[in-house]
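Data availability excerpt. The first of two example chains:
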Amino acid sequence: MTTPPNPFENLNHLAEQGDATQRAKSVGHALQAIPELQHWLREIRQAAVQEMREDGLSHADVAAHLGVSRARAQQIAEGRSTGKRAKAAEQEQPEAP
């Protein structure tokens, strides 16, 4: 069996449950909560980047610290998503009349 990636080692107990039915249920609940987890983690990252900006760092400085592009640092600060999430959000929005 594989081990969970960092920083999720504390979820290893899900794989170690002896009862297969309970293990499957617990992992199923965890899988269903992944979108909420991603949202929560994005909020934490956004707040951290905004704090860095309030401390006087430019988007370029933030980018250098995080190992992302300047544009991506700005997107994070503004709470904008990229890739599949952004495309899905665009498709969900009704078109203007």
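And the second chain:
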Amino acid sequence: MELRQLEYFVAVAEEASFTRAAARLYVAQPGVSAQIRRLEQELGQPLLDRSGRTVRLTEVGAAVLAHARSALDRVSHMRLVVDEFTGLMRGRVSVGMVRSCASLDLPELLADFHKAHPAVEITLTEENTDRLVKSLLDGELDAAVVALTTETPPGVDLHVIADESLVVVTVPGGDLAERDVVPVAELRDRPLISLPRGTGMRSCLDRACAEGGFEPRVAFEASDPNVLAQLALRGLGPAIVPESLAALHAARLRAVAVASPWFRGRMALAWRSEGPVSPAARAFVEHARVVLPSPQRSETERSETERSETERSEAARTETQRSEAARPGAVVTAV
């Protein structure tokens, strides 16, 4: 039994066609047929039913298929481990992203990783957060940029990229616009503008309203937060947006805080906390955690900058005092 035979068998089973399997494997169809017949002769049972228009698995073939896939996966993982020890990174990394993270330069991150590891195949999928998390836990994705509520999904580790309050933005002149903070109850029965269900911000809105004993009345949905702000600008209702986006429209929209712990959203890089992880996926997560911003890191860098500026000011003042003291007849006052 050869690995090539197992590979050919799996391809034919998945494609339900010798022709499509041969095209997928970049080999001649007679070669595929010959190798699978040798496999069947060695096992002593037919694995494929060739009598119909499409190729189907026999009962034995269906049972063998899972073992064939497992064997190929183990060999692939063994090669990846060896490549990791020799410094040669191969494999595949599947990445997901939410539809509302246009401000994040994910293409640049992927391009940089590709330059560092050109032999690694990278794929990118765009979806809502709930589906991305499910794909992560199912092993279909290796990492994903997701928008979350204040809770962390079980089975997932996070590198938080952004953590900020959500606000309600509305045109000046309305009853909401006259207040700085409102309780969640003020949103009851209002035609709201929000991201669709399954997104992090919508989950925050739904959770806050549920805690207030009602379901939000969402009149307009859009997958881009900028579109939400544009809809609010045209007087179509209050929109739920991140505080940073509201600041960009401060000249024309009034931002109102909502008194609820659930009115806060996070953007994060997520990956499985348990289960097998390929060397390529592990390398990507490590790369992304270094490159992507972090609220904690930004705060630390801000503190270090302020401290450096203070030290430079103190040094400049000390130097000035020394220069003054060096002048004949100078009087130095301690401060």
